[in-house]
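Reader question, answered in our methods column.
A reader sent in the components of a multi-part assembly and asked whether the whole thing could be modeled at once rather than chain by chain. We filled in our standard form and ran it. Here is what they sent:
COMPLEX SIZE: two components
ENTRIES:
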Amino acid sequence: MSEDTIRFTLNGRDVSVPATTRGHLGDLLRHEFGETGTHIGCEHGVCGACNVVMDGVVVRSCLTLAVQVDGAEIETIEHLGSDHDVAALQNAFVARNAFQCGYCTPGMIMTARELLAGNTAPRREEIRDAISGNLCRCTGYQAIVEAISDAAETLREMADE
Amino acid sequence: MLLKPCARWPMNKLVSKAVGAPMPRESARLLVEGRGSYVDDIALPGMLHIAFVRAPFAHGRILCIETADALQMPGVVAAIDGKELAEICAPFDTNPPGVPGHASAPQPPLAIEESCFQGETVVAVVAESRAAAEDAAELVFVDWEELPAACSIAEAQSDSAAAVHSSFDNNLSLHHRFGAEDVSDAFENAAHVVEESFAFGRQTGVTLEPRGIIAHWDPRAEELEVWQSHQVPWQMREVYAAQLGLSPQSIRVVAPDVGGAFGLKLHAYADELAAVAVSKRLGRPIKYIVDRLESFTSDAHAREAKATCRMAVDSEGHILGIDAVVDSGFGAYAMHPRGSFGEAMQAAQMIGAPYKVGAFRAEVRGWRQNKAPSGAYRGVGQPIACAITEDMIDLAARAVGIDPAEMRRINYRSTLDEGTRATQSGLVIEELSLDACLAKLMEAMDYKTLRAGQAALRENGIYRGIGFASFVELTGVGAGLYGPLGLPLAANESCRLTLQPDGSLTCATSVTDQGQGTLSALGQLIAGEFDIAPNMVRMISGDTGRTPYGGGAWASRGMALGGEAARRACVRMRDGLFEVAAGVLQCEPSALAFDNGEIIGLKGPSGLTLAEMGALCHYRPYDIPTGQVPPMTIEESFLPLNLPYITSNGVHAVHLEVDSELGTVELLDYWVVDDCGTVVNPLLVDEQLRGGIVQGIGAALYEECVYSEDGQFTNGTLADYVVPMAGEMPAIHVDHITTPTRASGLGAKGVGEAGTVGAPGAVRTAINDALSPLAARVAKQPFTTRRILEAVMAAENLE
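And here is the structure of the entire assembly that came back:
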């Protein structure tokens, strides 16, 4: 790491940005790179709206300092439409009306994708547990749970084919 | 918000029965893909940012403000205090002339000399970045004299209370009575009289996207553009015009994608007004995004109330009378422009609303407090009234010795009594379907089996409860309410429908959408009228520069009012096109119909598709046989003229288990049967109900703005103010009874608040049902584990 530059991979692109010691990853993505699909809800790591994928693992971008991503691979909702799992989730979210205002949705999909990567047939309770770190203030969560379950089923069928 | 037609929806897809179809919200797919545009996603060239210095005390006097150090900081452009801003911006004066005796102090955008709640804005520090502004705000020195404060309702109403604001010598902001002056006869002759005290914790809406605004005063054009996360852009245009002394026509207010609103984004806030005024002062675009702590301490609060209620019943369980007193906590100022009285008034007036209550009296008092102002939050007072009513019904049923469901059934109101204009409390109620809702609900939940299971488990020390909540809800509230109050608010909803030359339609609507899906449903409705795919209808909303004048979103009005306006515009558009087609086809217009976007005549498909009609009318009007080109843009506005609002109704039930040793509540199942009239899209309506119920469960079990005795907000993070999470929420079974309102051709009533109105009452009655073998009761919401345990222990100590 050069002392005054952060270099990382953002959605498959090599990028660099002047290092600032105070900013968090969420603000960096939104304000420096214009990737505004990542939303800031609480800045306390509670709500999950700012979830992004860092080196394959979902992290709270509001709790991740910008300088921590030097050398890392970061994926955000804008890029992940080409990912089979994410596309299945997005289709299921639309089909089930599993979102209202959409503010929590990108973060919710990050979490759901991670769940399905490790559990191809989650039970309803497992889904509810997995997304309990993602607050949705609009829906009753039920449609989200059903959508994730539907997406899992779709992905299992795709895997069988 | 602009919903783009979605290329994924096949153009040839037939939608023959649009109303009632569970169509996915394809047009909102961009939100799922992270392509939404919320206020903080927008940046303007030369934009500056604000950080506010806020009052640290519940009540204080500002002795002096020093900003010199802050102004030395890099990137800082200005530090503006209340006196400076007062030169160009008037304080909110929120005293609706139609509310007698209402009294609230003027609220400037930045406090001048006196501040009345912790979190009140004092200095606006303006800088090139938010971070620079926050750093500089730390260096602003305010010399405070802390003043005595009155924070709780009890404190505010005591004779020795400190004055919340120095312009008053007491803290009573509102005093009103609904119903009769004296109801003692009903109580003297009653077989049973039950009485209970209630307390409701202060809550806030907690939108996941905090409030935010970008204001841009262009000094060259002398025009103001505002992008704001808000429900009612037209209202805000009038507010900014009034406060800044501008012509409303020089102002454009845009609400882009909004990340949840729930009533919280219905108000005009001092900090947002300050941002607009600062832009006017500096001639630069200003962005201000509320952070989560500011959100907790300065968003509209709601629900804080104390109440006592007495209910008289005869030996068979018929209600003979209700006598209630509600004390409501208003906070430091009345929320602009609609005031803070709505919650208090509805909390009192709506008590007993679903029932024939005999004699009725409800007194309501609103109290100023040194806390954040309270305002509208989903349901506005009705969740309080419902919870009081339903708990009283259960108490009365127990006193009489009848089943609580039966107690409800025998007391339900079906409609207004013959020949009367309003209920004893002054409500104007349409035909209700509570009987049918309850019958369907009891079947869905298998009530008898649940009761048998409950009795069996009690033998083993397992305490399960079944709770009901019946509600009547005022939806689509219109000018009949706001006009007499003297509030300058358009409460009608409008639709401007345009046929484009390519045969697609544009609907510009006054209705706004913060996730409810109203715009998708309106598009679906319009598409159905012409039998075209929804992606042929482009919706435009939330922009005073591009939409017809009207309300926006509050009081469950999107489909009830906006849907009817759209339907009427479609009918007129179609009639005009049929006139043209009848000339071409040499037949009567009444013989024509739309099928798959094409006009069908006596001989079947005519070739006159919407695209052909658009081209004919726009490009080749000389080919129209009558020579009359019908209007290609139709504007309709709707408001039921003979009703102040449209009443919907429904019944909730919850099954839960209380752990009497831990004080925890496990929600096992939840049912609701709702009657919101015509359902345009059940996929949207059902999850809207579920979302409302989950917020109501949050109210019942978790959510409370906890202030210390000296008025410090103590739980201002989402880790400390707990909102419902997926893991704790039950499966929610939704069903409907459909009684279309006669107030419109569409027949839709409102539904956005129905869940939140009923759920707190259902959870309250279920917990008290569960605890009844222990002779314990809870009365103070939220019913936290601690409060449940205290109730259990208090009952044990009595034994």
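What stands out: The radius of gyration of chain A is 16 Å. Chain A has five helices and five strands.
Send us your own complexes using the same form.
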